[in-house]
Amino acid sequence: MTTAISIPNSRPANVVAASASPTTSTIHDRMLFRKESTTFAIRQPKVLHPVENEDLRLLILENISQEAVKAFRAQGFHVDHYTKAMSEDELVQKIGSYHAIGIRSKTKITERVLKAASKLLVIGCFCIGTNQVDLLSAAKAGIPVFNSPFSNSRSVAELVISEIIALSRQYFERAFEMRNGIWNKQSKGCWEVRGKTLGIVGYGHIGSQLSVLAEAFGMRVLFHDVVNIMPLGSARQVESLEALLAESDFVTLHVPELPETTNMISKEQLAQMKKGAYLINNARGKVVDIPALIDALKSKHLAGAAIDVFPAEPGSNGAPFDDQLNSWSSTLRSIPNVILTPHIGGSTEEAQRMIGEEVSSALIRYLNYGTTIGAVNFPEVDLRAITMDEPNHVRVCYVHSNIPGVLRQVNEALSPYNVEKQYSDSKGEIAYLMADIADVSPTDVNSLREQISKTSANILTRLLA
């Protein structure tokens, strides 16, 4: 694999095999039976060996959990770990020698980067969001993208609770004054949160956990979502965003960054909020029209805000958050009772450890087994593991364009062998087939690989044996 991939056209056929499969128990590779305190495996997973003798190399950026790095190295992968993000130019220079990359929110995987990624098999986003990756171009190149949609939910929910209390008591301002040697004890404009109404926009994993925590503080909870969801506790779903804004003392946003959510809170929506209400955004930087928010704060229509995400964010710690980055930065920083934090919603030891475990496991399963369950841009396909009592078995992992006649071509190539398991699914223009075939001799592997990779719709072919 020496040439850059072509997007959206299929790149030259590639066959990359993973290193040894893990020996720990998973739902995919063994069944467990417990009797008289003795646990034993009924079906031992087969250890996979490379079809092509090329070690898998992983590029891990943005100080991702060391637990994830240890998990990768335990599989025999070569890991290069960096604490900072890389620019597009840096990635273009480096990524050609790597089979996988792990990033957080600052590194951008663009179409240009993907074209330079001649060996890349998989991308891991060690965070919730995936808008930093060109998902469509990655899929067209046969590269699944995995993220961690659940692991930092509690951390974000707890941050929101802390911001609600900090805003209602103005203790962010009082602490700043004390640090400047000013004693300013006051109760005017300070409130208990008990009995107040919290409006949650987006009742997913974070919103629903936040709902439970808020009710424990005695708050009344309303939520708005694009789908009907069964509420937890005494929370109540309202039909429209306008209804939620009109009733809520605190409004908190938990939505993805999509075309329909860009500037979803702007001048019109801010005017619909109660006078003296508070706005909290720990979702995505572009869902709030910041200049409109500044006007609402300066006019005293809103009593405060907490913002953890921004349209443009610095690429590294220590970099300035100034008007060159966002033209309104200095104005926003000067407004009282506004809490600004540097995208720390999921930045806890617990969240980062769980994210590291979740995403590293997904990447290992894909590299070792071809499993795409949990991929955000790819068909989700899985097969049970090849076991030790199944010698001379080969797993075919075939990414192809979703066009008619492909399966006929593949099945013709597989026809001399016994296909023991096969599963295929599609998502948009991309389809993915996994098949386990029996009684394949070592001398047949290269021929089989060549036949499948020469099919007209081929994007990427891997053989695991």
Into which percentage range does the β-strand content fall? 15-25%
Unreliable residue runs: 1-13, 15-41
Shape: elongated
Structural category: alpha/beta
Features:
465 residues, alpha/beta, seven-stranded parallel beta sheet, five-stranded parallel beta sheet, 14 helices, elongated
List the helices and strands and how they pair.
Blueprint: E1 32-35, E2 38-41, E3 57-60, H1 66-74, E4 78-81, H2 88-94, E5 100-103, H3 111-116, E6 122-125, H4 135-140, E7 145-146, H5 153-169, H6 171-179, E8 197-201, H7 205-216, E9 220-224, E10 236-237, H8 241-247, E11 250-253, H9 267-272, E12 277-281, H10 290-298, E13 302-307, H11 329-333, E14 338-340, H12 349-369, E15 394-401, H13 406-414, E16 418-427, E17 430-438, H14 442-453, E18 458-464
Parallel strand pairs: 3-4, 3-5, 5-6, 6-7, 8-9, 8-11, 9-10, 11-12, 12-13, 13-14
Antiparallel strand pairs: 1-2, 15-17, 15-18, 16-17
Helix pairs in contact: 1-12, 5-7
